[in-house]
Design goal:
This protein has 51 residues and is an all-alpha fold. The chain is 49% helix and 0% strand.
Length: 51
C-alpha cells in the first residue's frame, strides 16, 4: 500500500501515517513475540520509507 501511495502521489506530495504499538520497543507482555516482531517490522518499514 505504501509503495502504491508513493508512486501515485509522487508529484502531488502527501503523508503516509503508519500506526504501531509501544510493544515494538518495550516488551511489556510475555508471549507476544510474534506481535512484537511484526510491530518492529512496521517501524523499520516506516523509517526506510522516510529516507
Amino acid at each position: 500500500m505504501c509503495q502504491h501511495m508513493i508512486k501515485s502521489r509522487q508529484k502531488r506530495g502527501g503523508v503516509i501515517v503508519n500506526v504501531s504499538s509501544i510493544e515494538a520497543v518495550l516488551h511489556l507482555v510475555k508471549g507476544l513475540t510474534h506481535y512484537s516482531v511484526s510491530e518492529i517490522g512496521l517501524v523499520a518499514l516506516t523509517r526506510s520509507l522516510a529516507r
